[in-house]
Amino acid sequence: MTTACHRCGRELEDNAFGRQDRCPGCESDTRCCRNCAFEEPGYRSECRETQAEPIHDFESSNSCDYFRPRRGPARTPARPQGPKSRSAFDALFRKGPPAGPRRGGVDDPS
Ligand SMILES: [Zn+2]
What we know:
Blueprint: E1 3-4, E2 11-12, H1 83-93
Antiparallel strand pairs: 1-2
C-alpha cells in the first residue's frame, strides 16, 4: 500500500518521505502533516499524536518525530490536474526561442 500525495493524489513510495523529498507530481513537500497518518482535523494542531510538537504549516516539510505516511487514497479528492495545466507549468520554465515574429527566414535576402 502506498501513500497518495495530499495535493495531487500521486502515489508516493515508502522511502519518499525525507525532509528534502518532494512529490514527483506536484513538487510539494512529502513529509508534511497533510501526508501524515496522524493528521486529523478537529484535534489540536489537527494531529492525533498529542505529544507531537504543534505544527502550523501543514503543507511544508517538518521534522516531526511522529511523522508516519498516511496509507490509502487521499482523504480529499485530488484536484483535477490534467495535461493542460501541466503544459502550462512547463511553458513557464521551458527555455526556448522567444515568441514573436521570426527574423532571418527564407524571405530575408540578407
Ligand atoms: Zn503531489
